[in-house]
Design goal:
Length: 101
Amino acid sequence: MVKIEQLTRPFLTFLLCLGIIAFEVSCKLEAKTSCYANLKMIHGAKDTYAIEHATTNGQQVTEKNLLIYMEAMPRCPQGGTYKIGAVGESPSCSLATHVYP
Ligand SMILES: [Zn+2]
């Protein structure tokens, strides 16, 4: 005869696994959203720099140039590396899933 405990244990394990997976997905989404916000901030600082310094498309912008407009250079929450890019280009993260238009 099968005891109720034998039936509920796999079900509870299944629910626990679902909870862990949901938590991981939530953390990854939050990091991706945070990275997107960082790239948007870098883009805004770069646009401001370009306007104030009358730069043209293709001119390189450095981290030092942007620190005038931000307290600190933002970092990707999952360890990706940011590429500021030139004026007229969008900044990007080295992590393939962290996309900024
Ligand atoms: Zn990133």
